[in-house]
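Late entry, written up from scratch paper. The run itself happened at the end of the previous shift, but nothing got recorded in the book at the time, so transcribing now.
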Amino acid sequence: MCLGLPMMIVETDDITALCEYRNEQRRVSVMLLYCAPVGARVLVHIDTAVRLLDEDEARLISEALDGLDASRNGQDCGPFFADLVGREPQLPEHLR
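Output as recorded:
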């Protein structure tokens, strides 16, 4: 399974970018994006930024990763997915 991380661009030369997520930094390719500026949130898969994220989407992905981590450690993961209770999950626009 491949997970994407919601990382923030710290510095870039428009080909690669130094990105940060929590206390980890890594250099990733930004060649799939057009002019991703410093401070932008990006979704990173296998050291490649695949798309820009807005603040809310980056936060939701980060919370989902926290929930997966809690579940993996045998903790209650319900609070991390409380927004899913009582509603059907919606497909992203590009999958509808």
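The chain is about 20% helix and 30% strand.
(Scratch paper discarded after transcription.)
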